[in-house]
Amino acid sequence: MSASQAVFSGWMEIPETAAHDRDRIQAEEATLAAMVSQYAGALYRVAFSVLRNASDAEDAVQEAFLRVLRHRDTLGEVRDQRVWLIRIVWNIVLDRKRRAKTRPETDDVSELARVLPSSGLTAEQIASAAQHHAHVLGCIDKLPVKERQVLQLSAFEELSSVEIAQVLGITESSVRSRLFRARNLMAGLLNHSRSLR
Amino acid sequence: MNPYSQNASGQNSVSATVDATLRLVANLPAPQGIEDRILVGLRTAPRTARVLHWPVPLRSSTGAAGSWMRSAAAAAIVMVVAGGGWGIYTHVQPPQPNRVIVMPQRMAAPGGFSSAGAMRTPQTLNGPVIAQPAAASSVQLKPLKKAAAHPATTPPRHPRPVATAKADAQLSAPPAQ
Predict the structure, then answer these.
(1) What CA–CA distances, in Å, run from A107 to A59, A99, A111, B21, B26?
(2) Taking CB atoms and an 8 Å cutoff, what residues of chain A touch B32?
(3) Chain B partners within 8 Å of A66 (Cβ)
(4) Is A109 on the interface with B (CB under 8 A)?
(5) Distance linking the first and last C-alpha atoms of chain B
(6) Residues A147, A153, A154: CA angle, nearest 5 degrees
(7) Whose CA is closest to A152, among A110, A184, A182?
(8) A67: closest chain B residue by CA
(9) What DSSP line would sit under B86-145, residue for residue?
(10) Model ipTM?
(11) Nearest to B27 by CA among A74, A117, A56
């Protein structure tokens, strides 16, 4: 090794060569893998409830974990990883939904018919149920944004009203009042559509 | 059943319908192998940019000393950038104002018309005039007038004006004593 190479290697050492850095990276990867196996399903369902498209929801979950990877140095400061991750994926999903407004909506009926439980039901019943759910989801889409978000998150049994408030960045009383308003609006919308039939 | 309770029961049924649909969507099972796909995506994702570490002798200083070194390095970078900018600012001369000779404005011709590029020439004196005797000049004009008065008549081949003949006679005659 020449003198210049020795100086160069002494002054410009790459972090991966250090043993403690390697251990740190391995520990981070293990933590991340545990988070993926624990929360990927829940994050996917949150993403799907807004996007209603399987591939888009999976992309959103992937992007959420990529963001976690970028900020892995701050993982130790996170108190509730589950709510933190749901908040990340929620923001991603809302951003995607906003950007995808110009694109045509995905076919909710066919997507729902694919995922509906089909045990003991005929194909006609499944199609009818899918149409009914699609109609309800269409009414939900007509709600104001604030009420719609609370209503969608309230469907997740694992999320309490306090956690919904943390995800949305509002108070718990706001969550309750918005949920009450959303249910009233939904009742009006569904009754109106029934009277039109 | 009063209308309020009927309305409330109607709202309850609606909310049950809404809840059933939302729960159905919310409880959908995640697709098979999503965790593996996400992990593969995370492994292939580009890591953050490699940062050159501090030199080995300086790396031992940790904590406050390390942060002090970082601040000093940042200040040095700022100084270099600011010094370079100042050097450029001081070496570049501001543009000189253009030296322009202001031409006097051309006066318009009186009367509102332009000269159309015509050059004014000074009036010069008339050239020398050869003086001729008045009689000769008056005599010489007569046959011309006659000729003009009688254009049809054929003029003589060599007309001899009368005045000329008289003058010849006077010149040939001896002066009277």
Answers:
(1) 18, 18, 6, 16, 18
(2) none
(3) 41-42, 45
(4) no
(5) 179
(6) 85
(7) A182
(8) B42
(9) HHHHHHSPPPPPP--PPPPPPPPPTTS---TTPPP-PPPPPPP-----HHHHHHHHHHHH
(10) 0.72
(11) A117
B1 or A114: whose pLDDT is higher? A114
Is residue A178 within 8 A of residue A146, CB to CB? The reply is: yes
Residues in chain B, total = 177
pLDDT at residue B3 is higher than 50:
no
Q: Under a CB-based contact definition with an 8 Å cutoff, are residues B11 and A187 in contact?
A: yes
Average pLDDT over residues B119-145: 65
Residues in chain B within 8 Å Cβ distance of A17? none
Which of A38-42, A128-132, B90-94, B158-162 is predicted with the least confidence, judged by mean pLDDT?
Answer: B158-162
Q: Distance between CA atoms of A98 and A101, rounded to whole angstroms?
A: 6
Distance (Å) from the C-alpha of residue A183 to the closest C-alpha of chain B?
6
- Token readout for A173 is 């009383």
Q: pLDDT digit string (tens) for B25-52?
A: 888 888 888 888 888 888 887 765 556 6
In the numeric block, which tokens belong to residue A71? 């900020």
DSSP B2: -
Query: Does residue A130 contact residue A165 with C-beta atoms inside 8 Å?
Result: no
Tally the residues of chain A.
197
Query: Structure tokens of B122?
Result: 């000074």
- C-alpha B23/C-alpha A112 separation (Å) is 13
Tokens 């995905």 -> residue: A106
- How close does chain B come to A53, measured CA to CA in Å? 11
The one-letter code for the residue type at A147 is E
**Residues of chain B contacting residue A136, judged by C-beta atoms under 8 Å apart:** 17-18, 21
Mean pLDDT by groups of 10 residues along chain A of 197 residues: 48 56 78 87 89 88 89 78 91 87 56 65 78 85 90 86 91 92 88 74
